């Protein structure tokens, strides 16, 4: 199963790259993906996650060829 992962804004800056593709043997949810990636920047509770351009919760099940994006919450001033 192939998953494309994109990182935006401060998360991308901290990780040092914008995108990666990983391969997993079975479907997993967002929490499981975050734990598998083992990146503290995306394990924070306030990080937003989208799958195929729609905001999802951490229990969302990822299937083959999904695009997962992690980004910090949008703030204004």
Automatic annotation (TrEMBL):
InterPro entries: Beta-grasp_dom_sf, Mopterin_synth/thiamin_S_b, ThiS/MoaD-like. SUPFAM superfamilies: MoaD/ThiS. Coiled coil: none annotated. Pfam families: ThiS. This is Molybdenum cofactor biosynthesis protein MoaD. It comes from hydrothermal vent metagenome.
């Amino acid at each position: 199963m192939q998953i494309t992962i994109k990182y935006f804004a401060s998360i991308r800056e901290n990780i040092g790259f914008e995108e990666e593709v990983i391969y997993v043997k079975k479907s997993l949810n967002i929490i499981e993906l975050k734990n598998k990636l083992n990146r503290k920047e995306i394990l924070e509770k306030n990080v937003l996650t989208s799958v195929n351009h729609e905001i999802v919760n951490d229990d969302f099940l990822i299937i083959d060829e999904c695009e997962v994006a992690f980004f910090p919450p949008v703030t204004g001033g």
